[in-house]
């Protein structure tokens, strides 16, 4: 179970090189600035945004900011 929740030890050259949106809740402990390097290695075209006043359930806890971020990403991609 720990392996499922953990970040990979190595990316082994695997990448997804298309636009990708990473949304992080300001109060979520799942993804944080310490993960930025591995996110960039796996997703070199990633757009990472922090949603204020939200934990892990961004879409519920700050619906307006969530929808704004997703719409802006979809319109730009």
How would you describe what is shown here?
- This protein has 77 residues and is of the alpha+beta class.
- The chain has one domain (2-76): Alpha/Beta hydrolase fold, catalytic domain (Rossmann fold), CATH 3.40.50.
- 38% of the residues lie in helices and 16% in strands.
- The protein is built from four helices and two strands.
- The chain has a two-stranded parallel ribbon.
- The longest helix has 14 residues, at 63-76.
- 10% of the residues are buried.
- The model has no long low-confidence stretch (mean pLDDT 87).
Question: Which residues sit in consecutive blocks of at least 5 with pLDDT less than 50?
Answer: none
Give the assembly state of these chains: single chain
Q: How would a textbook summarize the main sheet?
A: 2 strands, parallel
The CATH architecture name reads 3-Layer(aba) Sandwich
